[in-house]
Amino acid sequence: MDFHQYLRVLSRRWRVIALVALLGTATGVFASVFATPEYRATTTLFASLQGGDDTSQLNQGNSFTQARVQSYADIVASPEVTTPVVKSLKLKLTPSELGSRISAEAPVNTVLVRLTVTDTRAARAARISNAVATRFAQVIRELESPRGDTAESPVRLTVIEPAAVPSAPSSPKITLNVALGLAVGLVLGLGIGVALETVDTSMRDSKALAECLAAAAGPPLLSSIVHDSRAARRPVSLRDDTHSTRAEGFRKLRVNLQFAEVGKQPKVIAVTSPLPREGKSSVSVNLAATLAEEGARVCLIDCDLRRPSVHSALGLVRDAGLTTALVGKAGVREVLQTAGSFSVLTSGMIPPNPTQILGSAQFASVLEELAEEFDHVVVDTAPVLPFADTPAMAHAVDGYLLVARAGRTSKSQILDALGVLERVNVPVLGAVLNAAPARGDGEAHGYAYRYQPKPEPSGRLSALVSARLSSVVPRRGSSANGRFAKGRSINGRSVNGHTEPVSAKTRS
Questions:
Q1: Of 53, 89, 368, 476, which shows the fewest CB atoms inside 10 Å?
Q2: 324: Cβ contacts below 8 Å, ≥ 6 apart
């Protein structure tokens, strides 16, 4: 993966990465809080060689001592040192356990030995360190004394810096643990993000869906509808937020849909999706609204007889609708309702056999009747993969519109849905990506600004503007050069809310 791909992983999987990083940080904090504090006490000893006054002997003795102290460090934790210390301090430790808590180092080119003891209590750590240093010096003196000789050892270890009681624990190191937990969490989170990105075949953005459709030689991608958290509360974007990016996405769908079938304008359009909860009903409602925006006569039919939702989105009555007309209890026109600028035929009561009803001749007759009366008929259908309802109505529709949801619909679901629809010999006019990210690969939503007119000021017009208007619009009761009567109409068009035709006398 290159740098840009990692950036895409960060932008798409930042929640997972942040969660894992947070867990890593929390682990570092908990490990620090619940860990038993340990204290380190260090005693420093100086090794010296007895005898020799001239410079040559001193140099030789110093070199000898430096060589010897390197091996002394390995003797500190030996039983000869730890056993007497355990007994003298009455420690509840075995000599080997005490030895595991002792460490020693002899810096190169020095005659120093630093002895460190780790313990859970600060005062005890210092006491053990000093006791071990004393016993260690005795053991070295015994080892360096000639066997059977009463002379003193030529090597002497002297404590030059006894251990002091440490004021703070040496571990846990909270800052280090938290930083380490955060670093491990970030690396692990990024790895999980990359793995999820690799196995994820969902339509993440319009580029992914367009590539999927092109690879399958399928229909074109007609539009991407940007995600809006307010869509559930404001289902009709063209009515509730006319200039939003989401509304423009539906207008783009309307324009592209008009050119989907060259030489044939589809009149009855069935909107479906591979699975439920992918936004097909929302697309159906807004498609009907945007078609009606041009002044066309539009009828929206809720043919999702499994889980109808058009009525709730538009605040209409469901009980009298499509199924009411199909069973002959009422005529189609009698159960039509109005939602703003377009008509709606709700589902009616849910029948026990939706597939048979939608595949019947009566259903085709209803759609034919509505197609004669309206310029466009938009049909909201059931999901195509779980149910056979959508293919069953193929004889009554002019084309299908397939809706996929960004981040949810997978590539295999798209291909399976296309396969089902292609077998009924009705064209799939195109696809729509619903809930698309505001910014994505190849998305025009990167330019998701709100392009709308500025509100006019509500205060009084300036004197300059008033003067300019007075030169164009005559005052009430006067005529400007004899062209306008009473200042109320211009060529028969209303100026102040009333329309008055211009008389022949005035024209002359």
A1: 53
A2: 330, 335, 348, 349
For 160-197, give one letter per residue: b (16+ CB within 10 A) or e: eeebeebeebeebeeeebbebbbebbbeebbebbeeeb
For residue 484, what pLDDT is reported? 36
Q: Does one domain contain both 146 and 264?
A: no
Q: Could you tell me if 282 and 412 lie in one domain?
A: yes
d(C-alpha 329, C-alpha 310), whole Å: 21
Identify whether 166 is part of a domain: no
Using DSSP, state whether 80 is helix, strand or coil: helix
Domain of residue 349, CATH code = 3.40.50.300
Q: How far apart are CA 286 and CA 300, in angstroms?
A: 10
**DSSP conformation class of 455:** P
Asked if residues 271 and 437 have their Cβ atoms less than 8 Å apart, the reply is no
pTM of the model: 0.61
Domain of residue 178: give its range.
3-35+173-199
- Quick: pLDDT tens for 325-366: 999 999 999 999 999 899 999 999 999 999 999 999 999 999
Same domain membership, residue 439 and residue 328:
yes
Residue among 346, 169, 150, 314 at smallest CA distance from 239: 314
Inside any domain, residue 455: no
Q: How far apart are the first and last CA of the chain?
A: 81
What distance in Å separates the CA atoms of residue 494 and residue 502, rounded to the nearest whole number?
11
Q: Give Rg (Cα) of the chain.
A: 44
**Shared domain check, 297 and 282:** yes
185 and 232, same domain (yes or no): no
State the Cα–Cα distance between residues 338 and 89, nearest whole angstrom.
95
Residue given tokens 């004669």 in the structure block: 372
Q: SS3 of 27, please? A: helix
Query: Tokens for 487?
Result: 């200042």
CB 251 within 8 A of CB 451: no
Q: State residue 358's pLDDT score.
A: 96
Quick check: is 450 in a domain?
Answer: no
- Please report whether residue 52 resides in a domain: yes
> Structural domain tally of the chain?
4
As a whole number of angstroms, the distance between CA 456 and CA 465 comes to 13
